[in-house]
TrEMBL record:
Biological source species: Actinocatenispora rupis
Top-level lineage group: Bacteria
Name used for this protein in its record: Hydrolase
InterPro entries, sorted: CHP03883_F420-assoc, Zinicin_2, Zinicin_2_N
One Pfam family cited in the UniProt record for this chain: Zincin_2
Transmembrane portions of the chain: none
């Protein structure tokens, strides 16, 4: 069986390069964990009332994790998803044992480098790649670090973060087909390269290497997307980009809709947080661009505008038709043209 990535080595590498979190006492850490768990439950009620979406399946309790745990969870989740997909794409094309060993270890180090870097940036995440339903992860050291840097009131900031992340969990547990649609797109992305399967592993490894180089040497200017994507894959990426922009914008909309009622300092938090998103130093900006983080920042803004425009026009019930099926999800071009989505989905009712 082809070993594409040495996942255990990737986890070890991520754990090694993950930076230590902010200095907190044992009692402070216990207080943060306990409050994040309580606020997750509180946020869930606000999200249901605001969105009209309610989870149709029971989900595991929130997991409050450190940076290394976040990285290992994501790496093993990727392993469980990508291994069968890569085996299918590379069926009948086994590289030599030496090439497998050397290549998988190199890619393991590179993947661990990328996830180790990201482990210091992520505040929370719903585990789409895990089993169904997945866990909601909150990265406690990152939340504490950011709230301190912003000078935010801890309770307010933590609830604000929980509102965003719980919205993601609600999206995937209230819309039963959504996770499978996402996974199908990932599978199509890999399948789109089957005609080029002899070069698939090399292309993906070069993409991972470029990301790792960006973390270690930010002057690198390689285009990861050009390295990894075939023309057919770009079509899949367009669908995934539209989906992720919707999901991120919807979560940001909920944060802002609920915030004024339950987070007294929400305007100050939003203002400071947006400035933080924009104020990366030159090294950070290069790394963010290559890792796709800049694109994610645009997704928040564009997605929020899209959702806000639709809710203003047809109300939350009308907006929620977007979750009816894959056919009612927005096309990429519709993200910046909400009226086009209204005409296509609502027709004369819009």
């Amino acid at each position: 069986m082809t070993q594409f990535v040495d996942w255990d080595l990737a986890v070890a590498t991520a754990g090694t390069i993950s930076k230590a979190g902010p200095r907190v006492s044992y009692d402070e850490a216990a207080e943060v964990v306990g409050e994040l768990r309580r606020l997750t439950d509180e946020a869930a009620g606000h999200v249901v009332r605001t969105t009209g979406l309610d989870s149709k399946v029971s989900h595991p309790p929130v997991r409050v994790v450190d940076r290394a745990d976040w990285a290992s969870t994501n790496l093993y989740g990727l392993r469980d998803v990508m291994t069968p997909l890569m085996e299918r794409a590379l069926a009948g094309r086994e590289p030599s044992a030496l090439a497998q060993s050397v290549g998988s270890r190199l890619t393991g180090v590179q993947a661990g480098t990328v996830l180790g870097y990201l482990s210091g940036k992520v505040l929370g995440q719903y585990e789409v790649f895990s089993g169904e339903p997945g866990n909601l992860l909150l990265v406690a050291p990152n939340i504490v670090e950011v709230e301190r840097r912003l000078g935010a009131e801890p309770h307010d900031f933590r609830l604000w973060v929980c509102l965003h992340e719980v919205t993601h969990r609600t999206q995937f547990t209230a819309v039963p087909w959504l996770r499978q649609y996402f996974m199908d797109q990932v599978g199509e992305f890999v399948d789109a390269a089957r005609a080029d399967s002899e070069q698939l592993v090399d292309r993906i490894r070069r993409g991972v290497a470029s990301l790792a180089d960006a973390v270690r040497s930010p002057e690198s200017r390689a285009s990861v997307l050009d390295l990894v994507q075939t023309p057919a894959q770009r079509e899949v990426v367009d669908r995934l980009t539209a989906l992720m922009t919707l999901l991120e914008g919807h979560a940001d909309y909920v944060m802002d809709a609920v915030g004024p009622r339950v987070v007294p300092s929400v305007e100050e938090i939003r203002s400071k947080f947006n400035r933080r998103r924009e104020a990366a130093n030159p090294v950070e900006r290069v790394i963010r661009k290559l890792l796709g983080i800049d694109a994610k920042m645009r997704q928040y803004a564009e997605g929020n505008k899209f959702v806000t425009a639709l809710v203003d026009r047809v109300g939350m019930d009308g907006f929620n038709r977007i979750w009816s099926s894959a056919d009612t999800l927005p096309l990429l071009a519709e993200i910046t043209d909400p009226d086009a989505w209204l005409r296509r989905v609502h027709g004369a009712d819009a």
